Amino acid sequence: MNATTSATTEDLMIELGRNARAAARVLAQSPSEAKNRALAAAAAAVRAGRQSILAANAQDMAAAQSKGLAKALLDRLMLDDKRVEAMAKGLEEVALLPDPVGQEMARWMRPNGLDSARVRVPLGVIGIIYESRPNVTADAGALCLKSGNAAILRGGSESFHSSGAILACLQQGLAAAGLPASSIQMVPTADRAAVGVMLRMTEYIDVIVPRGGRSLIERVLAESRIPLFQHLEGICHTYVDGAADLDMARRVVLNAKMRRTGICGATETLLVDQRVAATHLPVLVKDLLEAGCEVRGDAATQAADERVAPVLEEDWHTEYLDAIIAVKVVNGVDAAIEHIERYGSHHTEAIITDDAAAAAHFLGAVDSAIVLHNASTQFADGGEFGMGAEIGISTGKLHARGPVGVEQLTSFKYVVRGSGQVRP
Amino acid sequence: MNATTSATTEDLMIELGRNARAAARVLAQSPSEAKNRALAAAAAAVRAGRQSILAANAQDMAAAQSKGLAKALLDRLMLDDKRVEAMAKGLEEVALLPDPVGQEMARWMRPNGLDSARVRVPLGVIGIIYESRPNVTADAGALCLKSGNAAILRGGSESFHSSGAILACLQQGLAAAGLPASSIQMVPTADRAAVGVMLRMTEYIDVIVPRGGRSLIERVLAESRIPLFQHLEGICHTYVDGAADLDMARRVVLNAKMRRTGICGATETLLVDQRVAATHLPVLVKDLLEAGCEVRGDAATQAADERVAPVLEEDWHTEYLDAIIAVKVVNGVDAAIEHIERYGSHHTEAIITDDAAAAAHFLGAVDSAIVLHNASTQFADGGEFGMGAEIGISTGKLHARGPVGVEQLTSFKYVVRGSGQVRP
């Protein structure tokens, strides 16, 4: 970029920011009914606009193919009838969620008669920075709208036309409900400098949610002056304790690793208590190998099955997002906790055991957003938690931790009702 | 500072950080009883160590006087028997607060039988950067300990000896309860570079709480890579609506401005509805003037009393923290809301009115941490809210908003108990 482009982009972004702030003030006071009407109308517009969305997507796909994008990226970018319908349904599902805004989180009377309440309010303006998946435009826009927040969306340049076509449908929904058009805006330039500007717009954006691969998150972490809801990676662990039921351990470990290997809640490291290294370990490893998983293990694991490759120090640090698992034999629950503290990403960890005391110790001591006893780490998902859709998962400890749903996209204020009280 | 000093300070700070992390892991698992025992023992140590605290304080006071510190600063720095006893009492009061750690904020069963809970956990390590008041050492240390967090305290260099003597008492308390000495640490150098290092220690500090004047907060805001609980200023407004009872308005406005002028919840700007400019305004202004408050007003306010000085644009932006008030006549509740949005600091605002609809509109539309109806803005305080002691007040919208007490010094995790569930 040259200086001129940059200045233009800066002005452009500040204008988006101003518009978003103004829209946020209106949205914060808009009734649930209007927001839900907008979401329903947007869903209808997505269905009615299917052809134009697919045409825009074809344009993006052609450009991506000619640029030689990897197959996995092309798959994320691609829309078809089914995916468009899923997007419309997603909008309708968000409309059905309870509206968090205005909820009284607590209400109490002070001895002096001050009637005090803690009431949920929107955060304000949410910035979403994502990569190739155009459906994030609909999902993230809907979650922000439902929670009364204005959204500034910055999708990947490869999905520019698809996202634009989806945004047009969201805009139809906003118009149908009489809500400000600037409630959901898209950065209208492919200039990469726009992201840098966004990350410094502390006056106009309250939270940034980066969604994408490690390099995107790292850039955002390094540059952002705005608080983030993010996880850099999900190096999730399953620990099979000495008191684990073998059948349960087999079922849960296989699911935790192999159900879907590309999601952040997939187990990347299996820790097995040495007390069951002879009985459980060979079976667990065999299951994984036969399901097509590459197993990299320490000496004890290699001894359990000759197909196990040696594990390297860097494996413990690696989020494979693939059919690969690192396996280590540990000396009991405390050693498992130590390993997780040293190598984990504070995302999601599970213990499999019939020993209630070991489970309680693990659940208490492991410092992760989600800790599970006798269940698969793949449950790390807002939908599975009953929170409805999520805009992401946070490994930060401030404000939102774990799945970030509509409730986590709110703040609160204290509303105090008196009858002339003064402070002594 | 030269490069050598800086490297030493950096190493020193990282060591504090490592120690704090290790202590935080222990504290997170420590029972309430141990934390409370430490607080009680620390209170006893403060009482028993009164002479040595006062001697250390005398040393600080002598140095401060010889440096010609302002009288207000000297008063903040000064300790006497009463203040030492108040500190000991404060420690005991924090011990009596409910322990937030381990509380189940929510618990629910999923259709698949997963028993899920959201459980409060400590944040981890809290950094507190403050100025001359040595009692912050005790208050902040106690609140962090109660909430299971390790604390790294960086007091002003002028209170170095006083804070050290107080820290020694806290350390005695920790030792008596068998808790790690590194649970509460003080930065052991007056090197100003230490603050810069602290603000970049993202690996070792989870939240920074800066407490002090505007220049400290501004520096921290500009430099910190760590999330903050802070308010830059409290430009609080009281709006006297056209439907306000005059007696109530007089009582509340006088208290809101004059009870204590130096606290962040003191009203700095009075907005009066033009409907009562003839009836209420002259009386309110007279009350303030007669209480010794300087009144700076717009043309309408100047017309109400000849002692009113003209107000300048910058007055609306100013947190006086003094017996000065800016007064403006506005055209109804919407104009009041607009003024607050434009000039306010999102801290605390009050409306005085007997009109329920106007009150509801104001409470809903004003985007501040605390909004009050028919009550004094001076109630903006954790103690007054029934939260017990507070470590500060936040005007940020993420995580903590308003008074920051022990509950706001916690995060949470999701604890999921299953019986072998796998995700379909």
What would CATH call the class of the largest domain in chain A? Answer: Alpha Beta
Secondary structure tally, helices of chain A: 14
| Global geometry of chain A | globular
Which CATH architecture of the largest domain in chain A is right? Answer: 3-Layer(aba) Sandwich
CATH topology of the largest domain in chain A: Aldehyde Dehydrogenase, Chain A, domain 1
**What's the pLDDT, averaged over the residues of chain A?**
95
Helix content of chain A: 40-55%
Whole-angstrom Rg of chain A? 24 Å
Oligomer: homodimer
Pair of chains with the largest interface and how many residues each contributes: A-B, 61 and 61 residues
Under CATH, the homologous superfamily of the largest domain in chain A reads Aldehyde Dehydrogenase, Chain A, domain 1
Number of self-contained structural domains of chain A: 2
Strand order of the largest sheet of chain A: 10-9-11-8-7-12-13
Order of helices and strands of chain A: HHHHHEEEHEHEHEHEHEHEHEEHEHEEEE
Helix-and-strand structural type of chain A: alpha/beta
